[in-house]
Write a structure and sequence with these properties.
It comes from Pseudomonas taeanensis MS-3. The chain is α+β, with helices and mostly antiparallel strands. Helices cover 38% and strands 26% of the residues. The chain has a seven-stranded antiparallel beta sheet. A three-stranded antiparallel beta sheet has the order 1-11-12, with no helix packed on it. Strands 7-8 form a two-stranded antiparallel sheet. Strand 7 and strand 8 form a beta hairpin.
């Protein structure tokens, strides 16, 4: 939609942009008077190798702009996959976001957060007016690469990087690559098997939900709300692995579709929502039965126990 007669719906535009997976960062800076700011952002990207330039963007409504505008430096902290709570923490308005947070001082005293995948310490190189955001370009003067698994943002929810499945059926052969690899030592590597199993099954599962008119984030949230309608926002964020803003937007979408009734802090799944849940659970059950049809009930219980043990190791 490009003409004036077909104005772009901001919410739908954001959802479409969410199809582009991005990393999650916390950008920090410090003013001359010592005031520190930090914001969660997924707009980070590279610009140039020579000179070494990167960019990110900041909402013009952000109170942190007063510091970023005048700070000599800022640091882009690349979050690791186990830092969802830290991402949510810096995404919320707070009096002192750094209270109780472990960090060191980088260039220009911009905070370097612990446990990150890496960071880029940048001189405040250029600021560009970009619609409702300021585009911040930084000249990298120092960086650290800790090579931890990064936190990813996709379709309104947090995600992790997994190796791409190469088990597609090659041309001119009847044996998929992954099947032949199962006869090697990899076949005894439980972590390899779990990753390959998720890669093989999850895309089909997501497509089934889309056919029911539900994005993955919406179906996850509806299922959680059915079991825990009075859960606080923090518990919902943890259960569905989504930032607060995306949880609230998904709830608004569910309400718009008639699946959820919102009255202040009260949430109630509607009859239409329960009907949609029956479709969703039926889809899940059929997929499970087809996928694990060769396992007995006892074997399935052992399989579930193994998965719960893996989940409990976090």
């Amino acid at each position: 939609m490009t003409s004036a007669d077909n104005a772009i719906d901001p919410r739908m535009f954001r959802r479409a942009l969410g199809n582009f997976a991005s990393g999650v960062t916390i950008v920090t800076a410090c003013a001359a008077d010592g005031r520190k700011v930090g914001v969660t952002a997924n707009s980070f990207n590279s610009v140039s190798l020579d000179p070494p330039l990167i960019l990110w963007s900041l909402d013009k409504r952000s109170s942190a702009w007063a510091v970023f505008e005048v700070a000599s430096h800022f640091t882009v902290n690349l979050l690791s996959s186990d830092q969802i709570q830290l991402s949510n923490h810096f995404a919320r308005p707070q009096e002192d976001k750094f209270a109780g947070i472990n960090y060191a001082n980088g260039l220009g005293n911009s905070p370097l957060l612990e446990g990150c995948s890496g960071n880029f310490q940048c001189a405040n190189y250029q600021q560009i007016d970009g619609g409702d955001h300021w585009i911040m370009i930084g000249k990298v003067e120092k960086f650290e690469d800790h090579s931890r698994t990064p936190l990813v943002y996709h379709q309104g929810g947090y995600a992790m990087v997994l190796p791409h499945p190469r088990g597609r059926k090659p041309e001119n052969t009847d044996t998929p690559e992954s099947s032949s690899l199962l006869n090697t030592k990899l076949g005894d590597n439980l972590f390899y098997l779990m990753i390959q199993a998720v890669n093989a099954s999850h895309p089909h599962f997501v497509q089934q939900h889309l056919q029911l008119g539900m994005r993955n984030s919406e179906s996850r949230l509806l299922m959680v709300l059915d079991s825990a309608p009075n859960a606080c926002l923090g518990d919902l964020q943890q259960a569905v692995a989504m930032p607060a803003r995306e949880v609230e937007e998904a709830m608004a979408n569910l309400q718009q579709k008639g699946y959820l009734h919102l009255d202040g802090q009260l949430r109630q799944v509607t009859p239409a929502g329960h009907a949609k849940l029956e479709e969703l659970w039926e889809t899940v059950l059929k997929a499970q039965q087809e996928l694990f049809k060769e396992l007995s009930e006892g074997e399935l219980e052992v399989f579930k126990k193994g998965l719960r043990l893996a989940m409990g190791s976090r």
